[in-house]
Automatic annotation (TrEMBL):
This is Acyltransferase 3 domain-containing protein. It comes from the Bacteria. The chain crosses the membrane at residues 12-35, 55-76. InterPro entries: Acyl_transf_3_dom, Glucan_succinyl_AcylTrfase. The keyword Transmembrane applies. Residues 8-96 form the Acyltransferase domain. Keywords: Membrane, Transmembrane, Transmembrane helix.
Length: 96
């Protein structure tokens, strides 16, 4: 893939995965499994939220890692490994 134009469909998939993350974390507050762990848990919980959170987490996190790998490969192809490493150091290591 030598074209460096914006891949809008990948941006849309990434946005959907992020929005599902909001639903996932919101469902943990109503999950009976997380009632003793989640500090904002509601006393009115239901097992459907356990099912929802487990189902969302099954594909949302792997999808996020696949998308991150895709864009990392895209960035390496576009700028090279040295620039990619420098970019990662600035974005990840420096804030830590």
């Amino acid at each position: 893939m030598k074209s460096h134009e914006r891949l809008h469909y990948m941006d849309n998939i990434r946005a959907i995965a992020l929005m599902l993350g909001i639903i996932y974390h919101a469902s943990l507050a109503y999950s009976p499994f997380m009632a003793n762990i989640w500090f904002t848990a509601d006393s009115k919980n239901h097992a459907i939220f356990d099912t929802l959170s487990h189902w969302l987490h099954l594909f949302r996190m792997p999808l996020s890692f696949i998308i991150a790998g895709f864009f990392a490969g895209h960035l390496i192809e576009k700028k090279g490994i040295k620039s990619f490493s420098s970019h990662r150091l600035k974005r990840l290591v420096l804030p830590l």
